[in-house]
Amino acid sequence: MIYAQILAGGKGTRMGNTAMPKQFLPLGSKPILIQTIEKFVLEKRFNAIIVVCPSDWLTHTKDLISKFIKDSRVVVITGGSERNDTLMNGITYIEKTFGLHDDDVVVTHDAVRPFITQRIIDDNINAVMAHTAVDTVVPAIDTIVRGENEQVNEIPIREYMYQGQTPQSFNIKKLKKAFNQLTTEQKEILSDSCKICLLAGEEVHIVRGEVSNIKITTPYDLKIARAIVEKRVVI
Predict the structure, then answer these.
(1) pLDDT in tens, 85-106
(2) For residue 139, cis peptide bond before it (omega within 30 degrees of 0)
């Protein structure tokens, strides 16, 4: 089976002083979260679309989906304290509700990337059916500098550098096995879901993203996103 998981568990601290987490802020006539879910509802191959949100916002999320989304595949559950805890909460829900099979896959996506294209979703599904893990990336435009303690340690060759986006897609059984193999220390510093598979020795396949597939994290990002929706910026 093919599942989608929308990761809406963040608190949005980098957005500044807002009345609600960033995924619930308005973008055009609808909240950012709804704009994102709508892109996934268009893909008929998903057997279920799981939205994972903060526990304090569970009722609010369900109310929004009831108002804007008319698709019985969409369900809402609560997330965890960290991103990967949220991811695994979704995996646990899938296992308890549908069971797990060797070819089950999940396409995971940030709730605050509402400009994802159908091409990116389609490419992720096709790729994860053949690979254990898939990462959506775009080539790095700026030079990447690695530094520590206010000193530059390395300037990698830009030709080999990419900027990670989402979706990130996984064979569910292999992801769960890889996650359970991690030490407590590894889980505490894990900043990227694809790294779960890399640490387990699994290959991660690359799918091309889009520059327009932006993540709305800061007030500046939100201004750009609203300009795009209002057709003041062409993507």
Answers:
(1) 889 999 999 999 999 999 999 9
(2) no
Query: Do 137 and 161 form a contact (C-beta atoms < 8 A)?
Result: no
Helix axes 32-41, 118-128, angle to 10 degrees: 60
User: 154 Cβ partners below 8 Å, 6+ apart?
Assistant: 145, 146
Q: Tell me the per-residue pLDDT of 134-190, one tens digit each, with 9 for 90 and over.
A: 999 999 999 999 999 999 999 999 999 999 999 999 999 999 999 999 988 888 888
CA gap 72, 153 in Å, rounded: 51
Question: In the numeric block, which tokens belong to residue 34?
Answer: 């709804």
Whether the Cβ atoms of residue 139 and residue 161 lie closer than 8 Å to each other: yes
Report pTM.
Answer: 0.93
Q: Is 79 exposed, middle or buried (0-12, 13-18, 19+ CB in 10 A)?
A: buried
- Which of 88, 182, 174, 181 is CA-nearest to residue 134? 174
Q: Report strand pairing: 133-139 vs 30-31.
A: unpaired
d(CA 51, CA 175): 19
